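This part of the workshop introduces the protein records we will be handling. A record pairs a protein's sequence with a compact description of its fold. As an example, a complete record with its sequence and its structure tokens follows.

_____
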Amino acid sequence: MKNQTFLRRLGYAASGIRKAFQEERSFRIQVGAAFGVTGLLIAMRPAPIWWGLVALTSGAVLAAELFNTALEAVVDRLHPARDPLIGKAKDCAAGAVLLLGFAAIAVAVAMVFATEKLN
């Protein structure tokens, strides 16, 4: 895959996102939440800093879910049997997604409260 054109690499990335969306319920839920928060941004029209914070946290959650999905796919392919260390790795990756999800929720709540105080 090295030394491919930018457009080809972009195609691989888009394919990965599309596959995750098609096959991973958690990713679809998180994409829906990102769209929901974007709707909230449009409705509330907060300061630009909030747009950036929401974009960063939403993007981080989605990226973490993609990493988690990739890790699970590789591990399940290479070692389909249950193993405590593999379970630990998968649980830690899922935990990273969860923590970023909580951070994204905290940013959204802070944005709502900060914007409400200004109005």
Remarks:
- The chain is about 85% helix and 0% strand.
- Residues 50 and 110 are 9 Å apart (CA to CA).
